[in-house]
Amino acid sequence: xxxFARIRLVMLSGVACSILAACGADGVASPGEGxxxxxxxxxxxxxxxxxxxxxxxxxxxxxCPAIAGSDQLSDLGTISGPQGTWRNCxxxxxxxxxxxxxxxxxxxxxxxxxxDVGKDEGPSGTNTVVxxxxxxxxxxxxxxxxxxxxxxxxxxxxxxxxxxxxxxxTGRGNVVGSADDSTSQLWGxxxxxxxxxxxxxxAPGPGVVEGTDSCYRETEGASGAHYGGSNKADxxxxxxxxxxxxxxxxxxxxxxxxxxxxxxVGSGTQLDHIQSHNSSDDGIEVFGGTVNMKHLVITGxxxxxxxxxxxxxxxxxxxxxxxxxxxxxxxxxMEIDSDGNENASPRQRVTISNFTFIHRNNAAGNGAAIRxxxxxxxxxxxxxxxxxxxxxxxxxxxxxxxxxxxxxxxAGPPRFESVSMQCNGTxxxxxxxxxxxxxxxxxxxxxxxxxxxxxxxxxxDLFVNGAxxxxxxxxxxxxxxxxxDTTAYVGAVRDASDTWYQGWTCxxxxxxxGSASGACTxxxxx
Length: 526
Description:
The chain has 526 residues and is mainly β. The protein has helices at residues 2-23, 172-176, 398-401, 438-446, 467-470; strands at residues 74-81, 84-90, 94-95, 99-101, 107-111, 114-117, 131-134, 139-142, 148-151, 156-160, 167-171, 190-193, 217-218, 226-227, 237-245, 250-252, 255-256, 260-263, 270-277, 284-287, 292-299, 306-309, 313-322, 334-336, 349-358, 370-372, 377-386, 393-396, 415-422, 428-431, 506-507, 518-519.
């Protein structure tokens, strides 16, 4: 009897299946509309869906590398963006021992807040306590706006990339893919604090003499970040082939960090092949010291591209500075100033050679592509200034134009040699108190040889010399200081065969540096 019941059930099931099959798709409830108790016979298998690919090509490392010292990296999990997923290894708040940060596949490093290299070792001495070495190709991002790196007096950074493996400092938004060509202020920046002379002391008073160990200054908006001393040859280490992107957070009202801030940094420091991109304040600001720099690229700075201050005495060669298009972002390409006492010693004394400045901001607060004030002594040689909608040169205050006077540590008025400018109809502007007149600014510019305001650019790729620039006669900058190379051309880039800016830089709508350079909005995957 039980066997008969089972046969009857099978027969009824077969009839039911036949009826359901004849009904077609319209007669079968869809998901969410009911429950299919008896399935259709031998349905066509649903193809296996194609997996959605994981964005990017980077896969995270299993863990963070070990480093020297008692303070280790913190494993902060993973962080993902368009280029893939990385193991996020956070720096300690302070590096207390010499250590190296290696490039490891699938690892990215972060600054959780202010990160110090060593502690302040004071204004005197030549010792180095802690050196932070960063390997080529390492990427470090600021996790918050107030993240920044402070290399304290008596300590060093050794961040040396290569033309194909630059070291990149950037912000979190760049890693997760939210940064674009107008992004800035994602984090603070890199601050080098040295023992070289400065002026405008933080705590003036009896016994405090500018340019000596008794005179120090403090990083804007920060506490305990002191710089200054008397060692002109002091070394804060080396930075070469480095990008610093989307920096410039405000630490306090009117006190912003720059992409790179050398502060009281001595001539023993090597700074070359450095790009600042989209800093919300200055691209690079130098506070005192004696450091020399070569091969700088500054793109998209929202204040001045290059700013020098408080007794800086140094030399700079090969600079490309380009403001963002649109006429509303950026102030001057260069601002030169003091912080109060315009006759303080050491007086600013700087020579800059082989520069190409693309000034695009028609609403600049400084009123010119270059503004010189504060009693500074400056030499501009072998330069090109493209500012067709604006004034090119402003000089403020008769302390800046006064005659040479050794008693005042004064070398004389600013000097221009082989500088060509494309400006609006009124290239020159005076100002300050006591004031310099427009005519006096013009006369100072015209004292030098091979200077012109009738320049019509034939630059290619925005900053590469063309036929007109090639025809200009250069000045031998090496006659001013042995730091300089003698060049047979004006401007930063001789011609299309001169490729010093390629590979280690990043491209944006502001400026493209060729196919060998990646996008500023992307994180390298190799």
